[in-house]
């Protein structure tokens, strides 16, 4: 786990961000920092602006005010997208053409391709990512035949295939069964151990709680908390603390800050 040293440079720096969707202000002056090696959870009730905040970071939502920097570069000038892995919030919309797991995960490698085909290193990274999420024996299967939780694992493998320095995931645990949640938690633990910085949108901390260095809570497009994860103080803040909690095995951890 990353030491919470303030000296580490930010990989995401959002300052005073405002954004509107239609006429409706959705971000109303958001500050959000993720430093190198940090795992930050972005929490908040439905509609509080979490997805809009991460989508503004990756350039899918324009700001009406404020600034965003990625790896110290203004987002508008940032081109190094191979350093960033993004897992969007899952929607129920069915995808059109059924692709295989391997094809979908390979698409995560596109930003690294230089000559229009996958190199040996690309292919190895794809197989490694598929293996990490526990789908190696199903790589040739169509994604349309997968459960929701398995599908989510494919999207995460796609983000991991680019071997990103910064991983942004929007509710990776939503609708995912406990077995898949445990696989995702251990996958993430490995990434974090390897130095990856992570921004996670979550409803509950759940099995990811031991990994999280800091929590930022949004309410109505404003930050109402930025600090230790709610109810995760004490021994949980100590380095090397990575056991799975008794409460993580069953019901999700309720923070009370989210409703
Ligand atoms: N395309 C859109 N057009 C207009 N308003 C939108 C659009 N997308 C989202 N909103 C509104 O913006 C607000 C913030 O939405 P956002 O998706 O960022 O919330 P969230 O915190 O991610 O919620 P959830 O927990 O449900 O995913 C909500 O009030 C939502 O209704
Ligand atoms: Mg959302």
UniProtKB/TrEMBL annotation:
Residues 12-245 form the ABC transporter domain. It comes from the Bacteria. GO terms for molecular function: ATP binding. SUPFAM superfamilies: P-loop containing nucleoside triphosphate hydrolases. Keywords: ATP-binding, Nucleotide-binding, Transport. Pfam families: ABC_tran (PF00005). Residues 228-259 are annotated as: Disordered. Belongs to the ABC transporter superfamily. PANTHER family: METAL TRANSPORT SYSTEM ATP-BINDING PROTEIN TM_0124-RELATED. This is Metal ABC transporter ATP-binding protein. It comes from Streptomyces flavochromogenes.
């Amino acid at each position: 786990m990353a030491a919470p040293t303030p000296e580490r440079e930010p990989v995401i720096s959002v300052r005073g961000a405002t954004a509107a969707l239609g006429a409706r202000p959705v971000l109303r002056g958001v500050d959000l920092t993720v430093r190198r090696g940090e795992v930050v959870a972005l929490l908040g009730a439905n509609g509080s602006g979490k997805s809009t905040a991460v989508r503004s970071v990756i350039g899918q939502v324009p700001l009406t005010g404020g600034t965003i920097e990625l790896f110290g570069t203004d987002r508008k000038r940032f081109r190094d997208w191979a350093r960033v892995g993004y897992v969007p919030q899952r929607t129920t919309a069915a995808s059109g053409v059924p692709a295989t797991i391997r094809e979908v995960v390979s698409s995560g490698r596109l930003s690294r391709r230089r000559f229009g085909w996958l190199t040996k290193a690309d292919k190895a990274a794809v197989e490694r990512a598929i293996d990490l999420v526990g789908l190696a024996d199903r790589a040739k299967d169509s994604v349309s035949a997968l459960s929701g939780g398995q599908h989510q694992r494919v999207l995460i493998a796609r983000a991991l295939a680019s071997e990103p320095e910064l991983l942004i995931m929007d509710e990776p645990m939503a609708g995912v069964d406990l077995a898949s949640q445990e696989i995702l938690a251990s996958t993430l633990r490995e990434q974090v151990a390897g130095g990856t910085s992570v921004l996670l949108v979550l409803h509950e901390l759940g099995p990811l709680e031991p990994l999280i260095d800091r929590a930022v809570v949004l309410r109505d497009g404003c930050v109402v908390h930025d600090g230790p994860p709610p109810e995760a103080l004490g021994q949980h803040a100590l380095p090397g603390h990575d056991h799975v909690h008794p409460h993580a095995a069953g019901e999700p951890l309720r923070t009370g800050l989210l409703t």
